[in-house]
Amino acid sequence: MSGDGFVPLNFRRLDPDEMVARARELRADLARRRSVREFAPDPIPAGVLEECIRCAGSAPSGAHRQPWTFVVVRDPDTKRRIREAAEEEERKLYGERITDEWREALAPLGTDEHKPFLEIAPALIVVFRRAYEVGPDGAHSKNYYTQESVGIACGFLLAALHRAGLATLTHTPSPMGFLAEVLERPDNEKAYLLIPVGYPAEGCEVPDLERKPLDEIRIER
Ligand code: IYR
Asked: How many domains does the chain have?
């Protein structure tokens, strides 16, 4: 079917051996990705984040509404304000709101209310979910499956940043309402994920975690 807003699909079949080899290569590369909480302050080479955000923007989305905005924060003063607001929320979380069960679950990660990486990382990518759109006349139009769409886009983004040689953290200070305030985002944008990005600090260590083997995550029918 051509015309009517349709174009031919750009697709080529691969040899079976090449299919497995490509899948294995990506798997081995992504297996090395780890969430990092200690960053070096070195700046990110020009153009890298832009290409990675284009990659995120290629994700599928409900009714192709592309319901995402990626705010790149490199300004030290803005990073400081984000750190201060995040630490204020996290102090309440670790001090009062956290349950014993949650505290135990987090213990192996060694996290606490101190978030110096929010200032040290050369960039923070703050991902916003566009719950709806606002037309020029102020009328609201619906977006669809925004949680799923933005989640998939974040997956693309994390994979792209890793492939480009950068370390990331998926950080979810809770509640995250302060991010829309600090970054002066409109009411239709809801903070979804805060991703510090950069090079890992010299000597950076990460928790000794294992991934579930295939036979625990895959079922064939
Ligand atoms: N947002 C807090 C707590 C936290 C929660 C989960 I679930 C984690 O996997 C890691 C941390 C913090 O960032 O410290």
From this structure: 1
